[in-house]
Amino acid sequence: MLTVTNIETFYGPSQALFGVNLAVEAGELVALMGRNGMGKTTTIRSIFGLTPARSGSIEFEAKDLRRLPAYRIAQAGLGLVPEGRRCFPNLSVRENLVVTSGPGYWSLARVEELFPRLAERRYQMASTLSGGEQQMLAIGRALMTNPRLLVLDEATEGLAPVIRREIWSAIRLLKEQGQSTLIVDKSLSELLPIADRCTILEKGRTVWNGQPDALDDAIRDRYLGV
Ligand code: ATP
User: Fold this and answer.
1) Residue nearest atom 25 of ligand 1, based on CA coordinates
2) What's the rounded Cα separation, in Å, for the pair 50 and 151?
3) Which of 116, 176, 194, 203 has its CA 20 to 30 A from that of 209?
4) Å from CA of 178 to ligand 1 middle
């Protein structure tokens, strides 16, 4: 459903991506991996048109995303949970969810069922939520748009263990429901068991692509530093 071919992306004069290739098929969960600064977030920003790619192609369901402005890309069926969660701090939890709601499977009730903590805090201002709860809200907001492809950038980074477990359970549930997902996350022990495929970036290039069980120690040492 998503095919990224050989994209190159710049921040002003400085080149960050030198040829990234990656694909997500319907129903798959694909892990985008690599050490810090290797280009994972920039790849996601390129897909969403936030830092547009200068060359290469990005196709989503036969649409050329490089030709669409950023606001049209979300409408095309992609949902982003950006690094560092973005919610409206002065709106309640429910208001934050309603703002992004569209026609489809996801409703307030279904998001609150996925994340019971959000149900308990539905009238609370988003600014008063813990970091992990805000992350749940950010995921809930993305789901309310009924994205055919959900993209999660470091959704569990820096969170308390109990909240991380809840978010991973939700991600596993979404996968069982057939949600197509592209995910950047450092917790390989959670990510690899549910990933259908992994794409590894090194210095702005795709250097490895394969199934998680083919990720041997040599590749891990070389590209992931673990
Ligand atoms: P991390 O896990 O640390 O977020 P990453 O793999 O997501 O790493 P990117 O954030 O995509 O990596 O960064 C890729 C390269 O682009 C790095 O060399 C980084 O310094 C550079 N870069 C990222 N954001 C900017 C920016 N706003 N302006 C200039 N260079 C940037």
Assistant:
1) 11
2) 14
3) 176
4) 31
- How many Å apart are CA 219 and CA 119, to the nearest integer? 42
ipTM score of the complex?
0.94
Distance CA 203, CA 205 (A): 6
Angle 106-199-196 from CA coordinates, rounded to 5°: 55
Question: What's the pTM value of the predicted model, to 2 decimals?
Answer: 0.95
Is residue 11 lining ligand 1, measured as CB closer than 6 Å?
Answer: yes
* Domain spans, the chain: 1-76+192-225
Q: Is 14 in the pocket of ligand 1 (CB under 6 A)?
A: yes
Cβ-based neighbour number of residue 33 at 10 Å? 26
Question: Residue 16: CB within 6 Å of ligand 1?
Answer: yes
Identify the architecture of domain 1-76+192-225 in CATH. 3-Layer(aba) Sandwich (3.40)
pLDDT number for residue 74: 86
Instruction: Say if residue 155's pLDDT is above 70.
Output: yes
In short, whether 189's Cβ falls inside 6 Å of ligand 1 is no
Under 8 Å CB-to-CB from 26, ≥6 apart: which residues? Answer: 1, 148, 180
